[in-house]
């Protein structure tokens, strides 16, 4: 059975569960909304559904029930590669089933047919000033492609019906995803490699082809596969996933929705943190004249950052309460492939020094490193030293999860999002603070 047929079968089987919950259990209370949760950014309120990934505060992310080590072990890999096919990971996220080699081949072939970047996207990018942030270029490139949305055309034709909406969303997603490595690599080489470009290789997979178009040798293909898989999904409440879901809930197509999600990812408290980590480490390196600091020297740098009112980038998390398994996967890779890299030595030292300091502050709920504390270090090692590009890499990976979610949103007919706001007066009244 092909991926689309399997998806439809799964959507049909799932629909009665949502309908039953909606009809028979609509009034059942499942969570409390406290004043804290409202003021702290709707923190932790159970108000979104997704079956694609679940984030346990102590265990970390599971994709369709599988931990990161399980995903890395169970998914098919290209010959000679350490990391699995991104194509297979998307199959898992979308259908919930582990793909066979044949399933991976199907996604590979389908994406190859649809990967070409339209000339007008290239023209749009070229028209932007070269010092524009790569995330702005990335979001603009995605948004420019909206003119080709099959979902939007279908809606405009007056034939929209809720039951078939997943089909047009799926087609848009399958059109969009394979273009993203091309878009990312194009932006990179336009901005930083003198506008020289390397054509896509029809024989290479999503990750391998990205490495090829970036112009970076092995094992960067495995770095790309690992990076895209690790960043793919982190349940639905984070800023990029939630924004994509929110915008799509207005029946906006995937181009509008995902571009909006990318604008959220570009914030320093979210996806920009990987760039901030490298900037921070480079700053310390400059002050140290390239030397590795002692533990005591590193502690002082951390305190200087905190005392100047800044956060330590790459540490802390809104949900996680232990070291991020996405950090650990990258650490394992670094220990194997770049144990002597000076930036890795900094990252390693921060792993030892930062958590006890953040614990001393007393207010930080999670003193442990998140995914962003590690990712820049590996990119730097393989020659991607323009750290304002790092969030684009995060964004390409994030597309896999958010787009799978949006196909399911349409499949299950989720409604437009519309929480209610109240005034401060009303909140004071409700809280008994008047
Ligand atoms: N350094 C210094 N202070 C920190 C901190 C850090 N790394 N992490 C949290 N804190 C502070 C908060 O700023 C907050 O202080 P105030 O009460 O003075 O405002 C306090 O500790 C409590 O915050 P929290 O409940 O522990 O954390 P939040 O859920 O509010 O925020 C996050 C989570 C990620 C935004 C925060 O930990 C942070 O700013 N980290 C650094 C940036 C970063 O690494 N972001 C990447 C997140 C990963 C991702 O995007 O997936």
TrEMBL record:
Alphabetical keyword list: Acyltransferase, Transferase
SUPFAM superfamilies: Citrate synthase
Keyword Manganese assigned: no
Keyword Acyltransferase annotated: yes
Pathway: Carbohydrate metabolism; tricarboxylic acid cycle; isocitrate from oxaloacetate: step 1/2
Enzyme Commission identifier(s): 2.3.3.16
InterPro entries: Citrate_synth-like_lrg_a-sub, Citrate_synth-like_sm_a-sub, Citrate_synthase, Citrate_synthase_AS, Citrate_synthase_sf
GO biological process, one term: carbohydrate metabolic process
One function term, GO molecular function aspect: citrate synthase activity
Family listed: Belongs to the citrate synthase family.
UniProt-recorded name of the protein: citrate synthase (unknown stereospecificity)
